[in-house]
Amino acid sequence: ETGVTQSPTHLIKTRGQQVTLRCSSQSGHNTVSWYQQALGQGPQFIFQYYREEENGRGNFPPRFSGLQFPNYSSELNVNALELDDSALYLCASSWDRNSPLHFGNGTRLTVT
Amino acid sequence: GENVEQHPSTLSVQEGDSAVIKCTYSDSASNYFPWYKQELGKRPQLIIDIRSNVGEKKDQRIAVTLNKTAKHFSLHITETQPEDSAVYFCAARSAGEYGNKLVFGAGTILRVKS
Question: What are the residues whose beta carbons fall under 8 Å from the beta carbon of B49, sequence distance 6 or more?
Answer without folding.
Answer: A100, B32, B33, B34, B35, B57, B64
